[in-house]
Design a protein that fits this description.
With 197 residues, this protein is mainly β. Helices cover 12% and strands 32% of the residues. The protein is built from one helix and 19 strands. The strands form two sheets. Strands 1, 2, 4, 6, 8, 9, 11, 12, 14, 15 and 17 form an eleven-stranded parallel sheet that branches. The chain has an eight-stranded mixed sheet with strand order 3-5-7-10-13-16-18-19. A hairpin with a 2-residue loop joins β18 (131-135) and β19 (138-143). The radius of gyration is 17 Å and the shape is globular. The mean pLDDT is 95.
């Protein structure tokens, strides 16, 4: 992975984490045990500190940055969907930020909350635990059910398993020129997209 020391500060990646080789880590970045960092993620700790606590995942093309002296933190088992942008904010334990959402400076996403896809969370926003946060600007829509929280937790466990599998089974290769006769299948999962109802 492209990893850069900046102003004497070197990123830290726990040996049990998986960081894709195309992700970029700069400066004051700390990636904890069991974390997954996806392709083309950018963690720019050149102003403030970036912390991914144990079991968190940061998916493809996510961007994390902050103002000088800020700390952007994804707490334990946090789940950040594809293309999200986090800037100087705090994502609580077991919380989820949906695809292409933006969470701004000093925002506090409470534990077990979900920020909906494409939401824009303004600077200084806060919510109660187990909130569903939606819209642009984002507001609390309602409280999440325990069933919805369990669905989120199941998805996060899938990324924790993926981190382990990637450490063990990901390898660079040349593409095939045609489909093989007995193409293997990827491991199955019982986790399905959330029902819209």
């Amino acid at each position: 992975m492209p990893c850069y020391r900046y102003a004497g500060v070197t990123p830290v990646v726990h040996p049990d984490a998986y960081v894709h080789p195309t992700a970029v880590l700069i400066g004051d970045v700390i990636v904890g045990a069991g974390c997954y960092v996806g392709p083309l993620a950018s963690l720019r700790g050149d102003f403030g500190r970036i912390v991914l606590e144990e079991g968190a995942n940061l998916q493809d093309t996510c961007v994390i940055h902050g103002f000088p002296a800020s700390v952007t933190r994804i707490a334990r088992n946090g789940h950040i969907g594809h293309g999200a942008v986090l800037h100087g904010c705090q994502i609580g334990e077991d919380a989820m930020v949906g695809m292409n959402a933006v969470v701004m400076d000093d925002a506090q996403i409470a534990p077990r909350s979900i920020v909906a896809a494409c939401a824009f969370v303004k600077a200084g926003f806060s919510c109660e635990e187990q909130s569903l946060v939606m819209g642009a600007p984002a507001r609390v829509s309602r409280q999440l059910t325990d069933k919805e929280v369990r669905w989120k937790q199941a998805g996060t466990r899938e990324y924790q398993v993926l981190a382990q599998r990637c450490r063990e089974a990901m390898e660079e290769c040349a593409p095939l020129t045609e489909l093989e006769a007995e193409r293997p299948s990827l491991p199955a999962s019982e986790v399905k997209p959330k029902d819209a109802s």
